[in-house]
Amino acid sequence: MTFRQFAFNNVKRNTRAYVSYFLSCMFAVTVFFMYAVVIFHPAIRNYEFHDVVQSGIIASEVMIYIFSFLFVLYSTGTFIKSRKKEYGLLTTLGIKKSQLNRLLILENTIIGLTSILAGIAVGALLTKLFLMVFSAVLGIDDILPFHLSWRAIGLTVLLFFIMFELNTLAVVWTLRTKSVMEVFRGSLESRRTPKFSWILSTLALGAVVYAYYLAYTADLISIMWRMFPILALIIPGTYFLFTQLSIATTNLLKRNKSLLYRNLNLLTISDLSYKLKENARILFIVTILSAVAFTSSGVLFGLLRGVEAETLRFTPQAVSLLSNENAKLEEFESVVTDVETQFKEQFIPYESTLATAIRTETESTLSNWDKTPVLVYGYSDYQQMMDLKGVEAKAEPQYGKGILFVQDLIDSYTKSIPEVIGVKTGQTTTNLSLDWEVSPLNSSIGTNVQLIVSDEQYKQFKQEAETSSIRYNYVMDIPNSLNYATKTENVLNQVNPEIAFTDSQADFYLMMRQSMSYLFFFGIFISVLFFLAAGSILYFRMYQGIDKDLKHYYSLYRIGLTSKEMRKIASRQVALLFFLPFSVAAVHAGFAFKALQNILVSNVLIPSIFVYSLYFAVHFINFIIIRNIYTTKLNKVM
Amino acid sequence: MPILTAANLTKIYGSQRGVQHEALHQFHLAVGKGEFIGIMGPSGSGKTTLLNLLSTIDSPTSGTVTIDQTTVTNLSRNKLAAFRRKETGFIFQDYNLLETLTIGENIMLPLTLNKWKVNEMKERLQLVTEQLGIAELVDKRIFEVSGGQLQRAAIARAIIHEPTVIYADEPTGNLDSKASRQVMEALQFLHQEKKTTTIMVTHDPFAASFCGRVIFIKDGKLFNEIHKGDNRQRFFQDILNVQSILGGNTDDFQTVRF
Lengths: 638, 258
Known about the structure:
The complex is a heterodimer. Chain A is α+β, with helices and mostly antiparallel strands. Chain A is built from 19 helices and nine strands. Chain A has a domain at 319-510. In chain A, 68% of the residues lie in helices and 10% in strands. Chain A has a six-stranded mixed barrel. In chain B, a hairpin with a 7-residue loop joins strand 1 and strand 2. Chain B contains eight helices and ten strands. The radius of gyration of chain B is 18 Å and the shape is globular. Chain B has a single domain, classed as 3-Layer(aba) Sandwich (Rossmann fold). Chains A and B meet through helix 11, helix 17 and helix 18 of A and helix 2 and helix 3 of B. Chain B: InterPro entries: AAA+_ATPase, ABC_transporter-like_ATP-bd, ABC_transporter-like_CS, MacB-like_ATP-bd, P-loop_NTPase.
């Protein structure tokens, strides 16, 4: 047996322990590699979205790399440290520190290289599929051809090889082998009673609850500044939840003697407090990783699913053409005729109406509302536009009053709306008292707010106003307009922007869908990676602790615990390790979804339930497998 | 009427095809009620195998073990566990106490498994720990007390549910001479006062001298059997004599001779 064979055998015979770590590394390599294939794909340079996609992919690559780096560092560290006893034995046999280092580096290089090669092989197999999905998501008509560039392979191999080596070196350098004496005396660290502090427990609970409150009541504007405080509360809060509050809870349970001394409870509960203490850090890491995975995939999926609803929210009218300042009525009418003709040719069903408006400015003592450009509509025109959509119009405002239409989400949160506003028409300024609501009309460049006044008032304004301030607004309604999105957009693209400003659901929808698809596409793989890493850490933990646990169970077996009871205890404990962080992460993510729901109109409940169930299914399968490995091992000792 | 009978016990280790080793060969043993019996023999003689078979932890290749009219060798694994928990008590060289529990909880463990009421459990705990002189230790943790105290706690756990038989596997193996004496005196007390049936495997002639009868095993067969008269010192000398005839691996024996 040469030195190299020894290292190789060490890896080979530890396969069971390494397998999940290996798979996670492999998955990271695979994802990284597939993105790299897209970056270096020769055909992609021909597309206009090239730059956006390129930077999105590079950002994803950087994230995957950083995350893999940390994950590998952590895994290698715990793995190497869990074998300290073995190194102690080797030391007694006279291995030099330099030889031991060489052994460890060799072992990790073997694992690293294998997972790089396996990752690239799997990546190569999946590349075609990935390119198909990619093409579909980005709406490329012909699927990008299969192409593995040497540069993608080279980049992946190089970066990941460097990563494995750096991590191994870092771990090896910080490794302190036990002295020979320590190895032979065995571990003297006794399991002291887990301690906790009431203050920290309460603070942790308080922090988490307050973070939940912040998320629950957040809206678009406040989430911006609340984001950081929420994270700053929830992360340490979760940590102390596991290190302190969990122990506090089990200690409370222990005080109830009639509960504690009932059948298996004595064993389960007292083991629990140790398990919780020993695994607090793992539980914390797994919770945070899972919460990030849930939240990001839920949010991404929610956004993707919500595109339609958000389109209807921000573009209430299917199509609107607003004449430009210098456009003549005839020019505008010919544009409208063109559009109508093309719609008919393309068999797009529509109804339409033409409204006139006065573009002017406001006057107000509130600086936010002073000199704000506004479109003033007469009540009849407004009513027509509402009839077209089949929406009930508001009652006509009295003379001297007006209804202000503001942008959803943006104006309604940022600016307080004045009760009285001045409208400048020509030389005169008329003060109107205001009602306001979220605009049912499309917005247009420069004028986000609209004002509805009574017909009588409007007539007066029109007389006072300059001719150049008159605008024509041609509005269309298309039943199921999003079904004709591409066609509609093509027609509207031909409109001369000098004459009319177009705004349509089609445009908004296509743009939103594309950007959400990008986001989804780049985000989802990273989320899955996080989740897999969390699972792998759990597996690791279980594997590390198994010898100690088996000893514990053998003790129980000798005093007459049935194997059924033992399996029950073991299942409960493995289940706890699995589902406690899952549940906490699910609750964390739940509040994040609530914050998202406050911003969106589309329902995020269904996408979030979908995300949960998907992750739960994977997690559950994972649990069953690991529990079975565990109980099989248990049965062997008996 | 013996309370425990072993008939024709044979244990063969190793697979059908591989190298086989017969650890125990057609062994017979009858233990009377209230008897305190010691099993001695050199390393590899089969004494631990015998104890494991008698205590139902291991199952024999052939032969039967009957405890209190139940033929335990016919029971399923789960029934065996239930039987063990009710009818037997164990004392191990390594104490086999759970470090996550306090001393008191360890002692009560068999009772909680048998679903006793909390108050009865506490009364019984009080009683047993007083008898063994460890009443003040019940709230202590495993790492806070000495080896002799741990072993007495293990004895308390073994007897708290009043089992039919107590098995002790090298109970003094990890203890110094003072602690050994305390532990053996505790076992002797239980034997004399409570008439518990005890089967003990040991290397230590001093520990064995507390028994009423000592059997010697060599190569899986009974070698000799001696009974205690009225003098423990004399019995101790007898045990040493048999050991020196027994030979075997001399390193098992104490080099000091009286």
